[in-house]
């Protein structure tokens, strides 16, 4: 008697294996890695570590580590994740650069829209326009008057091409329709040092770095970049850019989590569920508040809302970056 062969379609085998993999995720013997495309010690690094702790707790104590893969304005780390195995163990934690690098780089080695699965936004940091202590202006009205009276003579520092301070500075110039000399530094610390010393006139940076200098009366503060005033004791009386007459001037440096394209849907759901639990963790919220950041708790925590928001940010920044003529190969 001839035996009968049982033929199982390859697609069904694949489906079964993917489902089994998703059920076992995360495996107890495998560590989840957040690739952070920046050096340790900055506000995005802190947010990544805080989220890793809270998501680990939400996933039953599963190990989550940080890999600081800095370089090329964040594109090296992002590309590392774009090319990683889509198994849920290598994730990208990055900030607004996800929306701006496509315009900064002529030959970005990955596609922001097509090479990632969007998991959700996590938090955002407001920005703050500050000036050297010897600046003659003491409020936004006086500052705008001083800028208009000194066109061609003003410089504005930043932490390097593509940095948060660079973006905010470009938007400030674009909104005022005034060209300033952009002075790039290798990081926020040297840019702040020269601002305090009076070598440069202005800087726009995250409140996590400006608040200590304002408290120490080492710089002058003019406005914040959020739609409403901040609750920070140091900045609660500081007007917004929009209150100062700069219509639609809103900049926040947001952070989000991404997986390589093709990661199984069931794995993505487990990661997104853990992220949603993490952003409601009182300890995570406390840590973000202490650093001047706000935890995101809206539709942008969902993959679809996250991706729609990032694509809107790509569209927002592209013409500003193009007009500034700042590119990298």
How is the topology of this model organized?
Blueprint: H1 10-24, E1 32-36, H2 43-58, E2 64-68, H3 75-82, E3 90-94, H4 97-104, E4 116-131, H5 140-149, E5 155-158, H6 164-176, E6 181-184, H7 188-196, E7 202-206, H8 207-215, E8 220-224, E9 252-260, H9 265-278, H10 282-290, E10 294-295, H11 303-324
Parallel strand pairs: 1-2, 1-3, 5-6, 5-7
Antiparallel strand pairs: 3-9, 4-7, 4-8, 4-9, 4-10
Helix pairs in contact: 2-9, 2-10, 4-11, 6-11
Task: Put the structure in a nutshell.
This protein has helices at 10-24, 43-58, 75-82, 97-104, 140-149, 164-176, 188-196, 207-215, 265-278, 282-290, 303-324; strands at residues 32-36, 64-68, 90-94, 116-131, 155-158, 181-184, 202-206, 220-224, 252-260, 294-295. By secondary structure, the chain is an alpha/beta fold. The chain has 2 domains: 11-125 and 253-324, D-Maltodextrin-Binding Protein, domain 2, CATH 3.40.190.150; 126-224, Periplasmic binding protein-like II (D-Maltodextrin-Binding Protein, domain 2, 3-Layer(aba) Sandwich).
């Amino acid at each position: 008697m001839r035996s009968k062969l049982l033929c199982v379609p390859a697609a069904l085998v694949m489906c079964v294996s993917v489902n089994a993999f998703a059920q076992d995720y995360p495996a107890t013997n495998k560590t989840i890695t957040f690739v952070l495309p920046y050096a340790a010690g900055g506000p995005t690094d802190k947010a990544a570590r805080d989220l890793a702790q809270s998501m680990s707790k939400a996933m039953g104590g599963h190990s989550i580590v940080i890999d600081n893969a800095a370089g090329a304005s964040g594109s090296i780390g992002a590309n590392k994740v774009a090319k990683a195995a889509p198994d849920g163990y290598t994730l990208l934690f990055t900030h607004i650069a996800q929306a701006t690098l496509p315009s900064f780089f002529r030959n970005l080695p990955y596609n922001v829209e097509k090479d990632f699965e969007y998991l959700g936004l996590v938090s955002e940091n407001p920005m703050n326009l500050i000036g050297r202590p010897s600046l003659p202006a003491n409020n936004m009205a006086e500052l705008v008057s001083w800028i208009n009276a000194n066109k061609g003579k003003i410089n504005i520092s930043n932490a390097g091409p593509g940095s948060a301070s660079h973006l905010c500075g470009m938007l400030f110039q674009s909104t005022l329709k005034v060209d300033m000399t952009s002075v790039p530094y290798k990081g926020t610390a040297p840019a702040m040092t020269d601002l305090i010393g009076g070598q440069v006139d202005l800087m726009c940076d995250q409140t996590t770095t400006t608040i200590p200098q304002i408290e120490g009366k080492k710089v002058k503060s003019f406005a914040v970049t959020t739609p409403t005033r901040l609750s920070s004791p140091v900045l609660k009386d500081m007007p917004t850019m929009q209150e100062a007459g700069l219509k639609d001037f809103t900049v926040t440096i947001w952070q989000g989590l991404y997986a390589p394209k093709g990661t199984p849907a069931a794995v993505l759901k487990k990661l997104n569920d853990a992220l949603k639990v993490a952003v409601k963790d009182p300890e995570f919220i406390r840590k973000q508040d202490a650093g001047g950041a706000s935890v995101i708790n809206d539709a942008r925590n969902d993959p679809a809302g996250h991706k729609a928001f990032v694509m809107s940010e790509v569209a927002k920044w592209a013409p500003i970056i193009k007009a500034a003529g700042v590119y990298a190969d």
